[in-house]
UniProtKB/TrEMBL annotation:
SUPFAM superfamilies: Radical SAM enzymes
Keyword Cytoplasm (UniProt): no
CDD domains: Radical_SAM
Keywords, alphabetical: 4Fe-4S, Iron, Iron-sulfur, Metal-binding, S-adenosyl-L-methionine
Name this polypeptide is given: Cys-rich peptide radical SAM maturase CcpM
Spans traversing the lipid bilayer: none
Species in which this protein is naturally found: Clostridium cibarium
Record-stated family: Belongs to the radical SAM superfamily. Anaerobic sulfatase-maturating enzyme family.
PROSITE patterns: MOAA_NIFB_PQQE, RADICAL_SAM
């Protein structure tokens, strides 16, 4: 589809002016006059092919001759992997996540199983070993062309059923003999004793253990189900036990999951992960409280924004080699790596848009992190709602519903005209969960988040351009100041 408008996005910072060319996936530094001319062209729908404007916008026409300012949009929104979807789901799976139980010995206030979310509730339902074995067989049948496979255990709290997990592991090792087989588990860490950890180490189990910060902050949200007492002391005791008895395993296979409450004192959280001897060398996967499927908004205090922003600023100083890695909290190192990946994408030019394409948000439903609930229902991943008929893409006994999976993969079709004209489509993070109203996919629910996504991407582009001005480059080489009209 060819529009009359150049497919570009303009942004500026004080006296610096930039243009993002969508077709070329390039950010150009431009002067103020060019910026103003491009603004006029976009705001007034000026056709540059009209002879009346050739003299006035001569410099703009020169840019067009150099291959910029194409007006092309997609003719149709179709995910590039759409034709491959049946093949991937038939023979290229690489993971199944088994929901061992819907019960937990914790009652975390922001847990997706709590009353604050639409999708899950604590129940006494557990997965039968027969269902688990059918799930493992399903992974075996649908992973013929995968070099390695992962089996992950999820809850509730999976270690409430340690014997069940052992039976699953032993069965999987028999079935997958000759293929690389990896195990992972997400756990609150409270039920790991000497017997459990010995078995997990023996099977090289990857562990993700939840810990939110110092005692006063962790215990605010994470309490035991029975007595409502805080769980911090028990989790730290577990981590210290693993660190002492199995130091190599602890370093290589044990990770932290920190859910950051935006109402807390972030400085205390940061100091804890930086200074606590037990955890300061660990890789921590941090995230703010999840608002997908949440029934109420998550509040954020101003002090949190200031201190969180300062830690982000330190990441940028680190990228410019002004401060070393030790100055960065370990809860921000993964975040820093993700920024590097995004910045690298900003510096990878393309030849132009094809006739079909898709925003960047969705993964392959089930192809990356297939989730199976206690009853054998199949979902794209563990983050979608189990209460959603939309997100249910099959059952272990009947296989995949390819058309339902295809609709989730091609979620951009739901808002096709908006996505065709969105300058930020490559970097969009919205998947089907953003549109899931449990009974249908809602274009209105999806669109309400689009402006926030575009603002975030523009912010990243501004950060990238600022860093480039000071010599940063995604390959960690020293760059030069960006010349006018040259690609960044």
């Amino acid at each position: 589809m060819i529009s009359d408008k150049p497919f570009i996005h303009l942004f500026h910072m004080i006296d610096k002016y930039y243009m993002y060319d969508v077709n070329r996936n390039l950010i150009l530094k431009i002067n103020k006059n060019t910026y103003k001319s491009l603004e006029e062209i976009l705001n007034n729908n000026i056709d540059l092919n009209d002879s009346r404007y050739k003299a006035k916008y001569g410099s703009i026409n020169e840019m067009k001759k150099q291959g910029y300012l194409s007006c092309k949009r997609f003719d149709e929104i179709v995910h590039p992997l759409d034709p491959m979807l049946p093949y991937i789901l038939d023979s290229k799976l690489n993971m199944i996540i088994l929901q061992v139980t819907q019960q937990c010995n914790f009652r975390c206030k922001y847990c997706v199983y709590s009353d604050g979310y639409e999708n899950r509730k604590y129940t006494n339902q557990v997965m039968s070993i027969e269902t688990a074995k059918r799930g493992i067989d399903f992974l075996l049948k649908h992973s013929a062309n995968s070099e390695s496979v992962h089996i992950a255990f999820y809850g509730g709290e999976p270690l409430l059923r340690f014997d069940f997990i052992k039976e699953c592991i032993e069965y999987a090792k028999e079935q997958f003999e000759g293929k690389k087989l990896l195990f992972n588990m997400t756990t609150n860490g409270s039920l790991i004793d000497d017997t459990v950890i010995e078995y997990l180490v023996e099977n090289n189990m990857g562990l993700v253990i939840s810990l939110d910060g110092p005692k006063n902050i962790h215990d605010k949200n994470r309490v035991f189900a029975g007595n409502k007492c805080g769980t911090f002391d028990k989790v730290i005791e577990t981590l210290e036990m693993i660190r002492t008895k199995y130091p190599s395993y602890f370093k290589e296979k044990v990770f932290l999951s920190a859910v950051i409450d935006s109402q807390c004192n972030f400085e205390d959280v940061n100091k804890f992960f930086t200074n606590c001897d037990t955890v300061k060398e660990m890789i921590a996967l941090s995230a703010l409280i999840n608002d997908t499927y949440r029934t109420s908004k998550v509040g954020i205090n101003k002090d949190f924004i200031t201190k969180y922003g300062y830690e982000t600023f330190k990441i940028y100083l680190n990228k410019l080699k002004r401060i070393d890695d030790k100055s960065i909290s370990n809860i921000f190192m993964k975040y820093s790596q993700q920024k590097d990946m995004m910045f690298k994408r900003f510096s990878e030019p393309e030849d132009g848009l094809l006739d079909t394409g898709h925003p960047g948000g969705p993964c392959i439903p089930g192809g990356t992190r297939l989730f199976m609930d206690v009853s054998g229902n199949l979902y794209p991943c563990e983050k979608v709602s189990e209460a959603s008929e939309v997100a249910k893409i099959g059952h272990v006994d009947t296989g995949f519903n390819i058309e339902k999976a295809r609709s989730l993969l091609n979620i951009g079709k739901l808002t096709q005209e908006n996505c065709k004209n969105c300058w930020a489509f490559r970097y969009c993070e919205l998947c089907a969960a953003a549109a899931d109203s449990l009974t249908k996919l809602s274009p209105e629910k999806k669109l309400v988040r689009c402006e926030s996504i575009r603002n975030g991407i523009e912010g990243l582009m501004k950060d990238y351009c600022t860093l480039k001005e000071f010599g940063y480059n995604p390959q960690n080489d020293v760059g030069n100041e960006i010349p006018v009209y040259e690609c960044i």
